[in-house]
Automatic annotation (TrEMBL):
Organism field: Hibiscus sabdariffa
One Pfam family matching this protein: F-box
Name by which UniProt lists this protein: Bet v I/Major latex protein domain-containing protein
SUPFAM superfamilies (alphabetical): Bet v1-like, F-box domain, L domain-like
Domain Bet v I/Major latex protein, first and last residues per copy: 346-491
Length: 491
């Protein structure tokens, strides 16, 4: 227990606060900043061992490679600290544990035994997870983004789990259904790029669910999705529903009287696959299930064969006031859009978005790679090392010239907000590492009547006081954004 110190002279309100209150204040900071600020006072020195939120990734990128073992030892001491009982959230990815899976296993066990409320793990390889992860009564949020197989125990019981996000799993043994059914108070369920059982019904039954995301679009491109199944969803209290997949064999969805926002993506079949013409009617069944929604987003490939004239009275969305339609190049006619507008008589806002489909096949490069031709005197090369362009977690390597000197930097996309149109890059490696412990680039776009305004923010921490302010790097960023804007205006 940290010792409270009586203030002398001016009123010191912080010294009069208890440790739990101080830890609560620190929880509003990032993990890295909370640990840093704990050295400002002798009393606060040991408060970092009682942080309620511990995000290893947030710290690891500011730790030099040669010091990472020391950092892992620090994590060991923090998680195995005898008085550690206030941890609420534990987050880690493969960047944090560098392939040391046994260590990660121990960290997860320590967090679970400490009564953690949220676990967030991401890995590009299969992981061995503690069996009692699936029986932890304290867990409220569980987010697992793990590539490959995952073996769930036969007994699953998560009585207090409200949020469950699963990404990139192979759950073809049907264990996902057991996992969902074991969560009696589940409110938020996300399944993304998850390999599901083949040729059996996809069944989700939950009266407590308020948000449901079933996004398998990425698997379609790899021809890993099977479509000979029936989607059965009984979740009458949904507020948000997203579905993106090949058109299934059938849909049986409960009435969703409280639905506010729905995103429906229906994608075309493999040309070699057998096609049943009756499936167009299945798409109508899917759309009819969300008739009560207020905000609707549609992405439908070959929509002309699904939404035919007239589509009333089969489809009627009297509550829809906002409609967003993403159109693929294959839907060149667009007559289905005009016909569909008859189904939304109370519509107030319409967004039509043209999607560049098959850009790579047509020789269209991702925008970052085009910078070498847009600003060739500055950007010499851009290489994607991991992930997808513009996606959270993507890692890219850049070679650029500043003041006649060629430099390199490796950037990680640490935050993406499509609503505020914001993206944040954090430095992992590069020449700037010799001057700054952290270097972050954030871009925020504000939509105008014509074009957009981009706000550039550069945040950094100097290694020493004699390091110059990175004004030259900031000016270079402004120049690149300006040239890019001019290029897009002519496109």
């Amino acid at each position: 227990m940290a010792k409270q110190v009586k203030s002398v002279g001016e009123l010191d309100r912080l010294s009069g606060l208890s440790d739990p209150v101080l830890c609560h204040i620190l929880s509003f900071l990032g993990t890295k900043d909370a640990v840093r600020i704990s050295i400002l006072s002798p009393r606060w020195r040991h408060l970092s061992a009682s942080l309620s939120v511990f995000d290893i990734d947030e710290c690891i990128f500011s730790v030099r490679h040669e010091n990472r073992n020391n950092f892992k030892n620090f994590v060991d001491r923090l998680l195995y600290f005898p008085n550690q009982s206030s941890l609420k959230c534990f987050k880690a990815s493969h960047f944090a544990f560098d392939g040391d899976y046994s260590r990660l296993y121990g960290w997860i066990c320590a967090a679970l035994l400490g009564g953690v409320n949220e676990i967030d793990i991401s890995s590009d390889e299969s992981l061995m997870l503690p069996p009692f992860l699936c029986t932890c009564r304290s867990l409220v949020t569980l987010k697992l983004d793990i590539y490959g197989d995952i073996n769930l125990p036969s007994h699953i019981c998560l009585p207090n789990l409200k949020t469950l996000h699963l990404s990139r799993f192979d759950l073809s043994d049907g264990s996902d259904f057991r996992l969902v059914s074991s969560c009696l108070v589940l409110e938020d369920l996300v399944l993304e790029l998850v390999e599901l059982p083949r040729n059996i019904n996809f069944n989700i039954h939950s009266l407590s669910l308020k948000k449901l995301v079933l996004d398998f679009e990425g698997l379609i491109q790899e021809f890993r999705r099977d479509f000979n199944y029936v989607v059965v969803i009984n979740a009458p209290n949904l507020i948000y529903f997203k579905y993106a997949d090949l058109l299934a064999k059938g849909y049986r969805l409960s009435t969703m009287d409280f639905l506010v926002h729905a995103e429906i993506g229906i994608f075309r079949f493999d040309k070699e696959a057998a096609y049943d013409g009756n499936r167009e009617l299945c798409a109508i069944d899917l759309l009819q299930a969300v008739y009560n929604v207020k905000s609707l987003c549609l992405t439908i490939e070959q929509a002309e064969t699904i939404i035919q004239m007239p589509c009333e009275p089969l489809l009627s969305f009297h509550n829809v006031v906002e409609l967003r339609i993403y159109k693929k190049f294959v839907d060149r006619q667009g007559t289905w859009v005009i016909e569909f507008l008859h189904c939304v008589p109370n519509l107030k806002t319409l967004h039509l978005v043209q999607v560049l489909q098959g850009a790579a096949e047509r020789g269209i490069k991702p925008l970052p790679e085009k910078l070498t031709s847009i600003v060739p005197d500055i950007v010499k090369s851009v290489d994607l090392l991991d992930g997808l362009w513009g996606a959270l977690g993507a890692i890219s390597s850049w070679t650029y010239v500043l003041d006649g000197v060629t430099s390199t930097i490796t950037l990680l996309i640490s935050a993406v907000n499509p609503i505020t149109k914001s993206i944040t890059y954090g430095m992992i490696e590069g020449d700037l590492k010799s001057q700054f412990s952290t270097f972050t680039i954030q871009m925020d776009a504000t939509q105008k009547i014509v074009g957009s305004t981009v706000h550039l923010t550069v945040s950094y921490v100097k290694l020493t006081e004699d390091v110059s302010t990175p004004q030259a790097q900031f000016d270079m960023g402004v120049q690149v954004i300006t040239e890019l804007g001019a290029y897009l205006a002519q496109a």
